[in-house]
Design a protein that fits this description.
Two copies of one chain form a homodimer. The first copy, chain A, is α+β, with helices and mostly antiparallel strands and 333 residues long. Chain A has nine helices and 14 strands.
């Protein structure tokens, strides 16, 4: 057991899970937390409520396609959406380093305001702290969010043949953060996919029975989400290599860096496991939404002798997609 | 207008209010936020819900009488209590510096667990981030909280003669943080008053009509809370100098440091404005609770030519208690 906290404890992979289990779950035992969803869902009066939180430490705080404020609103709103809830109210806590430019703060807050308007949520409570220069790298933001779970969506048992859908290109957020952080001189259309998942709420509400699992693949990317899904079943996962939507520019820079886009964070995508018979219908519904037009089916659950995730190409080539065990890039969200 | 964010923007006084108004209220306009309570209160289905958040950046993270985890649970629970709500569920977001000792993290989380048990609340959702060494001073914690507002408590218009009550000695948290942070070699019973206000919930529920305002005097201390109360009325405040409960040890170190305990944070006290006719009854009820046994009436609202807060001693001496305009001590919570 590590004596100190390391960067890998924050990468969303195996070490993060271990730390959370050994320290947080061990002490804060309750059925809502131990359910390990992106949000906790509980009854309050006559309503089913979902509740979630995230802290944002992204570096750089302004990046192509967004900033830390956009991420903070989208991240929390999206965690509610993939829990089947309609987001309503947010809280926000700012911690700011002394000397931070007021103009930057205004820009961040204006972006948050615009995203709240788009998502139809209100920031109803907040807190602001300022710390001495040198004791924080610019700014961090926490958001929590409360939504009403009208859908009553619940995770369902996965069966062999159930399909895996993703609502758009993968790895775009994580890759853009890498390019922007290291000022890489690469041409190409890098842009974070950071966006609200609220447009998909209608599909979630309508197809809640057909959708067995949903998650937004942030830290650790699509591969990490799939490993989480796989842990709840007896089946392995077969990915259709050529079907995984990866922009050429994203593929190129990941090759250069030695990264695999499957492990790179998305901040505006949803991964869904859908009952095999309904997969095509849900696919078409998601594709009919502007931000879901690139939705594809990228794989399926399958009976295997050795339960694992592998990616297969049309020539029959297979590669194993293991669980993330070392940090690729800290501070991507 | 300042071009950069300074420490005084985080001290809870005049500059904090200005920053919040000019940036946050301006952009996040909604009636719940603009109500400026310690928590936002809204209807959700058939329940009245209160919702609040705070980030904690206290230094040192372990201090006499508590640690950052105790503060994080008490702070959020207390904001719900002074809003008239019974706390139910909390979220927590940890940001940890690489290299932080795992044992310290365990200690903090165990304290949070114990405080949750005492407060009868559950941490149902959370998030953990790790940042590179040097980009954060050890650890910061955000908590948000949701409670049901059974009391239906609402702020009421203050009248001349209404009494000001405090549930115990003032300035103990802020002073202890100063002593511990600067390793001052002072003998005396310094200890933070950090504690839950949940034992007072029964009084809040029973006397909600008599209680006109409530607040926990954290950043900026009792003086700052009284200035906030005064802004909502046409009356000034007369404090009874000798009645303000200040431990001799707390008084001594504040004198040494040139601080006034009236501006030093409490983390387990409640300031109440109570209808004059009911003040003695509420006083006795609060005194009958173990953690409220030192409750006293420390002043009253009064008609004045120049609206202000002054403190009067039994010899007739008066001193003005102005609004806090410069930071005494950053990172006290």
């Amino acid at each position: 057991m590590d004596e100190i906290i390391k960067l890998i404890h924050g990468d969303g992979g195996k070490h993060t899970s271990q730390l959370i289990e050994e320290i947080f779950y061990k002490n804060f035992q309750n059925k809502y937390l131990l359910d390990q969803g992106d949000a906790a869902t509980f009854q309050l009066g006559n309503e089913l409520i979902s509740y979630t939180t995230d802290s944002f430490v992204v570096k750089p705080i302004f990046f192509r396609g967004g900033n830390i404020g956009k991420l903070a609103v989208c991240g929390t709103v999206n965690d509610l959406v993939v829990s089947g809830a309609t987001p309503l109210y947010l809280s926000t806590g700012f911690i700011i380093e002394e000397g931070f430019e007021r103009k930057k703060l205004e820009k961040i807050v204006e972006t948050m305001r615009d995203m709240c308007t788009q998502a139809n949520v209100s920031i109803v409570t907040g807190d602001t702290k300022v710390v001495e220069k040198g004791s924080l790298d610019e700014i961090v933001i926490n958001t929590s969010g409360v939504g009403v779970n009208y859908s009553g969506y619940k995770k369902n048992k996965i069966d062999a043949g159930d399909k895996i859908l993703i609502t758009g290109g993968i790895g775009e957020h994580g890759t853009t953060i890498a390019v922007d952080r290291y000022h890489m001189k690469i041409s190409g259309d890098y842009q974070s996919d950071c966006a609200l998942l609220t447009p998909f709420l209608s599909v979630v509400n309508e197809y809640k029975e057909a959708i067995k699992c949903m998650r937004d693949p942030t830290r650790g990317g699509v591969a990490t989400v799939l490993h989480e899904f796989m842990k709840t079943t007896e089946y392995g996962i077969c990915l259709y290599e050529e079907e995984i939507p990866i922009k050429p520019s994203i593929r190129a820079v990941n090759k250069l860096l030695g990264f695999d886009p499957l492990y790179m964070a998305c901040e505006g995508r949803m991964v869904l496991v859908v009952k095999r018979e309904e997969a095509d219908k849900v696919l078409r519904m998601l594709q009919s939404i502007e931000s879901g037009k690139d939705t594809c089916i990228i794989g399926e659950f399958a009976q295997m002798e050795d339960k694992m995730i592998y990616s297969r190409n049309s020539f029959g080539g297979k590669r194993i997609i293991p669980e993330l065990v070392s940090s690729i890039l800290p501070r991507i969200c």
